[in-house]
Task: structure prediction
Amino acid sequence: MLVAQTVGQRRVVAACCERSRDAGVHLGLPVAQARAVLPAGTVRLEEATPGSDASRLRALAVWARRFSPLVQVDGTDGLWLDITGCAHLFGDEASMCRAVREELAKLGISTRLAIADTHGCAWALARFGEAEITIVPPGGQRQAMAPLPVEALGVDSKTIRALDELAIDRVAHLLDIPRGVLPARFGRDLLLALDRALGHAMEPLDPVRPITPCKAERIFDGYTTNLEAIELAVREVLGEACAQLESRGRGARQLVVELGRYELESLRLAVATSVPSRDPKHLWTLVRPRLERAHLGFGVERVAVTATRDALMPGSQAEQWEDRRRSSMAAAGELVDVLTGRLGVNAVRGAVLTQSHLPERAFDWTAPLAAPVHDVRPPGTRPTSLFEPPMETTAMALTPDGPVHRIRWQGEDRVVVSCVGPERLGHEWWRGRGSTRDYFRVRCEDGACLWVARARETGRWYVHGVWA
Result:
């Protein structure tokens, strides 16, 4: 498996599997050369997604806080855990390494682990050491680093080339050179990297800090089955949670109302919104029907509201006058939320844009509450109404590929006064056979605006949509 990225005008390997590496593939190798050294038909090529990988690595860092409270993202492929005072919770350092390895294996992630007194030494052994798990005894950094290549210091390629010219390819060679010579010949970064690996220089830790969700709760003096009292408490904590969301500039996408029941498990009532919201009144309309049908058991002694999912909300202009008008987007979102709560999640559907240049495949129907946020823009200008299937018609063009002159529409022959096109849309080859179409935007003398297509294979004309 190869992961490719574009660097300048070249497509190079950004990552590869172990089998590809054993066959001679290395990072930075052009994709064409990598394909050539691997057996034909065995290569799976994926596109690099640095932004998505970075967010997943940070999520993994938050997950790793179960082993240490101090976890930092290390580059693009590693995590740095400060396990000072944590290893004894797993027995010893070796047992902790095995526990980390087993848990990551359950997630499908292969690992190389190293424990050392310094970050630089652990980083070098995890990436360039021979063993998959390496534990350096206290004060053993110098001995552990000596046989490693100079690349294990994490210095730039320019410094590596300068060292290679002098046949310095191991850290042991650098340790034999007087310290005063290194900065003058190779710069201060090399000496700083060496000092950090050996523990002679400080290396700060910037751990991930997970954002706590907005939460509010009320604890009663005793348990109660009075629904009015419970509803009042829920409305109060709901208002407090919305105030926290407002202070962060965010809105809830999912809320969980937790009822702590006496001598029973807590009851969790979840509601979702199609657009971010921090309006207590609207959120209460979603929570109230669920609360009225809830089984209170012997009584409720605690209520809590947690925004388990939230999203940024755009800023809005504060109105001076009392007759404030709510945005159409927020009003539509609240209507969808109410309909979904009453009719069910699958009963309300909405159209979302998809990655396709063909008009009939440029959108899909999905539940609004589950619809992901797409940064998809339709290519070119598209009509407000599409016909499914397209309506076959007859047309006359000045040239085979030229502008449309006359068209038959709704049983009448009409003269075209303006025509823009053609816009050629080919079929999607991965879906099998299809036709190639030339689209024209035409305006008739009576004002009708049509989206006309001609199938190149058959020469037939169709009206695929209109601008209303």
